[in-house]
Each structure stands twice: as structure tokens, then as C-alpha cells.
Amino acid sequence: MNTHAGVQVFGIPTDHQFTSQDDLIAIFLDSLSPANTLHNGDIIVITSKVVAKCEGRVVTEDQDRESAIRSETKRVVATKVHDRGVTTIVETHTGLILAAAGVDASNTEPGTIVLLPVDSDHSARRIREQIEERAGVSLGVIITDTLGRAWRLGVTDHAIGAAGVTVLDDLTGEPDAFDRTLEMTIVAVADEIAAASELVRPKDSLTPFAIVRGLGHLVTEEHGPGARAIIRPTDEDLFSLGTAEAIALGKERAITDRRTTRNFTHEMVPPGVVLTAIEAAVTAPAPHHTTPWRFLVLHFHEPQHHQKRIALLDAMAATWQRDLQAEGKSQDEVSKRIARGDILRTAPCVVLPFLDLAAGAHTYPEVGGRNNSERDMFLVAGGAAVENLLISISAQGYGGAWISSTLFCPDTVRNHLGLGSSFLPLGAVAIGLSESSPSPRSPKNPVSFLID
Ligand SMILES: Cc1cc2nc3c(=O)[nH]c(=O)nc-3n(C[C@H](O)[C@H](O)[C@H](O)COP(=O)(O)O)c2cc1C
To answer: Which CATH number characterizes residue 330's domain?
Structure first.
């Protein structure tokens, strides 16, 4: 950036009320006073309002404001309800993110509203070519709109269209005053010029133009990429949604994003991740205001945990082997079945969830099936807790697989771990970082799950 040059900014007033019949360039050139002739290297700043009016982007009252905003909107970024109504921040079809899609009822005939130009970079290029041709000078053009800022009160003008102007001045790699290399310093000079021009363009619509002089080093021969280059790509945007919208999306996706993960990397699972998941698990609903869940956590990276895990899995495998053989399965089938549980031997972490009936289940006289129903009621609460655990694991970026194993050898598990008969094993949950992203869910119609 050229820092030794002084900069002058002149407002160019006109009392003209712009319409689609107007020749914007002629009006601009006619508005210049003899003292304000154009120079090579000038940057002409024009408010988008007059560009839009000249392009016929005026909507009358019979088309309501909301439908105009909708048609200009690619996606809603944030909505805020306040005393004066609803503010909607949207992304327009050209990628701008602004309130009400830039649809504006100020400085326009009563009963009309003005949209933004369809493509302000295109407009800037056309205006630049015509001014240069008619005035015989080389200059740059910036089209501005007044925008709010996410973290600061007050509005200021920004460049929404540009031609022949460097819009971003990349100082990355240059030395600072102390000879340290600047990292990631990209100055949005087109926005700075737009904001400076606003200082001499009062908001009464009578000064739609400004000339910025002294920044010739930012004027380029080519039209350049335009103001579109200033827009941060959505995938690099840390704030691509409003807070309320991000929370709503997170709530919605937390449940459906959970997928069973069966292939893990070797990365350890931080103990805090598991504790957070257990904290979520124990918020599950349970009968009689009880909290009947218990968890055994076995981390792969903890040698004692690992020995305990392998000894338990060996004992469980022996029971499975015995039971499957008793069912008449061939040794090959038995081996295959048991091998399906290998995920529990290698997963970076395994959590064994239990339901402890002694933590509040009622007992009834042994007539009818009420004790079984009581147990089932608690088991259901166990399932709810495990689902909460899995959702939390997934929401923290880890994968989980709920494996039935312990459900099919409860006595072995209880005996091996020294747990009483009130402990009901609820399977095992393997946890780790997923090796690959899950395949998308096939859509399911909720209506098909309804009983007539
Ligand atoms: C109680 C229960 C036991 C399960 N047991 C196993 C298992 O032994 N092995 C396995 O690979 N998956 C097991 N699953 C996971 C299911 O196969 C999985 O949830 C199903 O394929 C749907 O995939 P999704 O979880 O990604 O939606 C079990 C799930 C539940 C609820």
C-alpha cells in the first residue's frame, strides 16, 4: 500500500431523482462542477441506490416487501425478533450477507422499495467503461451499500461492486514497523474507500457520488475480480449462521447425525469426552425419579483397563462359544459370531452400561407379571441413557457402536466383574474417532411408522 500519498474525498451532489429512464453516466458527468473535473487514477464511488434505480430495480407497493426479500434471498443466515419487527439477515444470490437482502424503503418514492442491482460488479464494469469512454480518463469504480456489522453498532458503507480497483490489499509476508513478517494481513481497501466516501455523502440521497483522489496505485488497468472477491467463502466462515439458527441446526442434527461407527483410528478418546457423554446419558428419563444407570469405562491406553477388558471379553467369548455350540452351530459359525465382537477388543475405548434395579425398582408379590414389567420399564430407561450417550459421543466428534454382547451373557459379566444380580448389562459401547465419514441416512417417512 502506498502510504505517503494524501487522499482527498469529494462528494458530488445532485438533486436529480433517478429512474429507469435515466442515463446515470450523463447525470454523473453533468453533476461535476468545473472545479471537480476527473483525473486519471480517481476512484468514483456510487451508491447502489441510484445504480439500482437506473437499472429499474424498483418495486411498487403491490409487490410486498417480504416477497421481494424472499426473491432476493439464497439462504436465511439469521433472524432476530425485536420491538420494531423482525430483522432477517440473508445471503443474496450474489453472495452478499446483509439485512433484508438489501431491499430498502429509504430515499425512494413513497410506496416503492429499491432492490440491489442484480450484479453490482457487472454494473461497476459497465459504468467504468462508459465514464472512461466519455470522459477520456482511466479510473476505478466502486458501488456501495450501507451495511451493519456483526459485532459493532452503527452502519457504514461497504463495496458491493467494483471495477478497476484493487479490492483486497494483501500485505501478508511484508515486514511490519519492527521488521516482523505480517501474517494473514489482508486489508479490505475497497470497503475502506466506500466507508470514506460516506463521510461526504450525507444520507439525504442528494449526494449519490463521490470522487476519491490520491489512491491511483489501487486503480488497475483490468476490471479485476470485483467486490465479489471480498466475500468470505462460506466454508471458511466461522459465523455462517446466526446464533439461534446454529443452535437450532445443532439440536436437529445432533440426533440424526449419530451413526454406528465400526472402524476407528488408533487415536485415544480423552476421558473428558466419555464423562461428558455419561453426563448426557444420565439425563435420560427414568421411572420413579430414579437414576439407575452405572457405567464401566475401559480405555485402551490405560494398561489396567486394557487387561480388565481383555479378561472380560475372553470370559464372555467362552460363554458365547458354549451357548452357540449348544444351539448346534458349527465351529466356523461360532468363530464368525464371536469375531463380530472383536471391535470391543480393539476400540480405543469401551463403555459398559448397566442398569441397577436396586437403585429404585419396586418389587411386587409374585402374582401376575408385574415384576417383569417393572424390570422392562427400567430396561427401557437404560436404552434411553445409552442413546443419550451415543448422541453425545457423536456430537463431540467421536464415533460409537452399541454392541449387544453383554446382553447375551449377563451372568458371566456380573460374575466376572463382581456385580450383584440387580445389575442388568445393557451391551457395550465401542468409542473412537471414525476412520471415515458415515454414509448418508436413507430418508424415512415418519407416516409409515404410524399404527392405524
Ligand atoms: C441394543 C442394540 C444392540 C446392537 N448390537 C449390535 C452389535 O452387536 N453389532 C453391531 O455391529 N451393531 C449393533 N447395533 C447397532 C445397529 O446395528 C445399528 O444401530 C443399526 O445398524 C442402525 O445404524 P445406525 O446406528 O447408524 O443408525 C446394536 C444396536 C442396538 C440398539
So the answer is: 3.40.109.10
